[in-house]
Design a protein that fits this description.
It comes from Natranaerovirga hydrolytica. Its EC number is 5.6.2.4. InterPro entries: DEAD/DEAH_box_helicase_dom (IPR011545), DNA_helicase_ATP-dep_RecQ (IPR004589), DNA_helicase_ATP-dep_RecQ_bac (IPR006293), Helicase_ATP-bd (IPR014001), Helicase_C-like (IPR001650), Helicase_HTH (IPR029491), HRDC-like_sf (IPR010997), HRDC_dom (IPR002121). The chain has 4 domains: 2-199, P-loop containing nucleotide triphosphate hydrolases (Rossmann fold, 3-Layer(aba) Sandwich); 207-404, Rossmann fold (3-Layer(aba) Sandwich), CATH 3.40.50.300; 414-502, Arc Repressor Mutant, subunit A, CATH 1.10.10; 526-602, DNA polymerase, domain 1. The protein is 48% helix and 12% strand. The protein is built from 33 helices and 19 strands. A 7-stranded parallel beta sheet has the order 3-4-2-5-6-1-7, sandwiched between helices. The chain has a 6-stranded parallel beta sheet with strand order 8-13-12-9-11-10, with helices on both faces. Strands 14-17 form a two-stranded antiparallel ribbon. Strand 18 and strand 19 form a beta hairpin. The chain is elongated, with a radius of gyration of 30 Å.
């Protein structure tokens, strides 16, 4: 029964007809009272897995979340859907805090979001002991493990706080990335009791992956943004200095960009993040301090200006793109110098085992940047999945020619030069000597007399330094010293010097035609872009009025579906994915009117078919006959007459169940006989007939609201059709 109610709530509040992969299994196990651990990629819908059970439990659910901004976004979203939720954190004033505590005592909320540190305060730890806590949901659960990429010591105290509660609640832990070691830590350190664990596929098919080796990173970045200037994106850089430089240059070029790093005040960080969430700025330039748990759903691209330190960080950060299921791009600008930067950071650690682990992960990250195989396959294999295809068709390596450039001779020259210079200098001076520079230091130290002086005069200094960085990354050279690192030759370089081992560096070759093919491959399904712009402006107005980010009103994916199907009434709008009852009530009329006005203004008529196959005609004053719709109705009717159920017909025809219901109702209006015993439960029929006696008018929504949640719009339509035509 609870499982059935869960699906009803999914449609009522979230506007979705079906659960995504893994959601139903996790929800079912939570509702059975089991602890769970869900490892699901960003954008897979982890929050629904604990939010829906929270609505069905008698007590409240505490959600432990690491970031204030994430709490606010989640609570805003829930409240917009008609679900009572609140957060308790340091951003609240004393009066706001007291107001929420009072409402908690009155059982006003179903979900309370808190930071893990809140459990350590004496007042709150005593306060929750007086509450009926049905479940504790732990977001970003990997933070509990020192082997995770975002270790947070306060997560270690969660289990102790849970033990002090009078009743032991269900524990539901969730994370986007977890190695077997991290998974084991989560179960052990949270004291999960025989948990149901589920790892959904890590494959985000809507994400396009690419590794680029630009000679001029900012030039390539600028070109990319110019081609995607109407879209929201994140640019990650490794240092504050780089973040500030990129942000300044982008704003100078006329783009709207904000920055985020630990050197800014909390007030500045919050302001910049809010500007980004509310679409007031299109681009966020940030260090990895930004984004854990960021809930903005319409991020169209994530660009890593520098290589991250490990695959876990990269995949989580890249995964902030396309959370709404729309097509998105994840591009990594790779330079071997990034490996040197990361190695210096690793060397600052005093823990030998952590240092060893970090080096191993850095090597994996480097291999990803240099592989010529499918990038998606590499990611899936790293996270323990078997890649069933050699080519995904949606990554840079699959869509472009990957050429291995032989730089063995260049490497021999560089290694020889380092040896002749006594292995006492850094890459800058080595490059100067190889280039044949006449600067004072080179001449004074007599390096112009070396046989290697000027033997790479036709190469740019940057190219020489890139090859040096690659040699360091692959352990042919060693960086020694910290403040002023010098280059030393490793024993591994012997094979290169003797010509026994070739050195190949990956280069991606893109032709104009290939670029166009790639773009076509990743383009969204066709939708009315002019209407999309109109609806996006309306959404912004609604969001500003409600004081929430625009994506909380409707996601871009939901707007695009509206722009494909042109819903002209409440029932049609409810058929759009992402439109639930509360949002229909709050925003439905405005969006329907905007669509109707647009269609009237543009003289758009619709060739009525099913919702999935609607055809748009932009012809002034011309009405289009509905012959194909009649054919479609008849096909559905004939399949029903042969004994197939609505879900079976929908699956076979690749249509929504609601579309099939509409087909059958329209056939009833045409006088065709239906076996209503297969469509309506007797008890539900009685309840609908009673509602029809007291609810005035023909609109379905008031009737639906007067009935229990489990009675669907389809049932109401069938009862009305049966009553109208006196069929049995």
């Amino acid at each position: 029964m609870l499982e059935t109610q869960a699906k009803v709530l999914l449609k009522k509040y979230y506007g979705y007809d079906d659960f995504r992969e893994g959601q139903k299994n996790l929800i079912d196990n939570i509702l059975k009272g089991k602890d769970v651990l869900g490892i699901m990629p960003t954008g897979a819908g982890k929050s629904i897995c604990y939010q829906i059970p929270a609505l069905l439990f008698e007590g409240i659910t505490l959600v432990i979340s690491p970031l204030i901004s994430l709490m606010k976004d989640q609570v805003d979203t829930l409240n917009e859907m008609g679900i009572q939720a609140a957060f308790i954190n340091s951003s609240l004033s004393d009066s706001e805090f007291r107001h929420i505590i009072t409402n908690v005592r009155k059982n006003t909320y179903k979900l309370i979001y808190i930071a893990p540190e809140r459990l350590e305060t004496e007042f709150f730890s005593q306060f929750i002991q007086s509450l009926n806590v049905s479940m504790i949901a732990i977001d970003e659960a990997h933070c509990i493990s020192q082997w995770g990429h975002d270790f947070r010591p306060s997560y270690r105290n969660i289990s102790k706080a849970i033990e002090n509660l009078r009743n032991q609640p269900i524990i539901a832990a969730f994370t986007a990335t977890a190695t077997p070691q991290v998974k084991e830590d989560i179960i052990r350190l949270l004291n999960l009791v025989q948990p149901y664990t589920l790892t959904t596929g890590f494959d985000r098919q809507n994400l396009y992956f690419e590794v680029s080796n630009p000679e001029d990173k900012f030039s390539e970045l600028s070109t990319y943004i110019k081609n995607n200037k109407s879209k929201s994106g994140i640019i990650y850089a490794s240092t504050r200095k780089t973040v500030e430089s990129i942000c300044k240059k982008l704003n100078k070029k006329g783009y709207t960009a904000a920055q985020y790093h630990a050197g800014l005040s909390e007030k500045e960080r919050t302001k910049n993040q809010d500007e980004f969430l509310c679409d007031n700025v299109q681009i966020m330039v940030a260090t990895n301090a930004f984004g854990m748990g960021i809930d903005k759903s319409n991020i169209a691209y994530v660009i890593h200006y520098n290589m991250p330190k490990n695959m876990e960080s990269y995949y989580q950060e890249a995964g902030r793109a396309g959370r709404d299921g729309g097509e998105a791009e994840c591009i990594l600008f790779y330079s071997p110098a990034d490996i040197i930067t990361n190695r210096l950071l690793i060397e600052n650690s005093n823990d030998p085992s952590k240092k060893k682990n970090d080096y191993h992960k850095l090597n994996e990250m480097s291999s990803y940047c240099n592989t010529d195989r499918c990038l998606r396959g590499y990611i899936l294999e790293y996270f323990g999945e078997v890649d069933s295809t050699n080519k995904c068709g949606n990554c840079g390596n699959c869509n472009n020619d990957v050429k291995a450039t032989d730089v063995t001779v260049e490497a021999q020259k560089i290694i020889s030069c380092i040896k002749r210079m006594g292995e006492r200098f850094g890459s800058v001076l080595v490059a100067e000597v190889l280039k044949g520079s006449k600067n004072n230091k080179v001449i004074t130290m007599g390096f112009d007399k070396l046989t290697t002086y000027g033997i790479m005069k036709d190469y740019s200094k940057e190219s020489i330094k890139d090859i040096i960085a690659y040699l360091i990354a692959e352990d042919y050279l060693i960086l020694s010293g910290q403040q002023y690192p010098v280059l030393k030759v490793s024993s591994k370089s012997t094979g290169i010097l003797k010509g026994k081992e070739p050195l190949l560096i990956k280069r991606v070759i893109k032709t104009k035609e290939e670029k166009n093919d790639k773009k076509q491959l990743r383009s969204d399904k066709a939708y009315d872009t002019d209407l999309f712009d109109n609806l996006r402006m309306l959404r912004k107005e609604m969001a500003t009025h409600q004081k929430v980010p625009p994506f909380v009103v409707f996601s871009d994916v939901t707007l695009k579906e509206m722009c494909r199907h042109y819903p002209r009434d409440e029932e049609a709008l409810m058929g759009i994915s992402g439109v639930g009852a509360a949002k229909l009530e709050k925003y439905g009329n405005q969006f329907i009117e905007a669509i109707q006005d647009y269609m009237k203004d543009k003289d758009i008529t619709i060739l009525e078919q099913s919702l999935e196959n609607e055809t748009v005609e932009k012809q002034p004053k011309k009405r289009i006959q509905k012959e194909s719709n009649q054919d479609s109705k008849v096909i559905s009717y004939e399949m029903f007459q042969k004994g197939l159920g609505i879900e079976e017909i929908a699956k076979e025809r690749e249509l929504k169940a609601m579309t099939i219901e509409n087909h059958l109702v329209e056939c009833a209006h045409l006088g065709m006989t239906l076996d209503y015993n297969r469509l309506i439960h007797p008890d539900e029929e009685k309840q609908v007939l009673e509602a029809l006696k007291v609810v005035d008018g023909n609109k379905l929504k008031p009737i639906k609201e007067s009935l229990p949640d489990h009675i669907s719009y389809g049932t109401i339509k069938f009862v009305k059709a049966k009553k109208a035509y006196n069929q049995s």
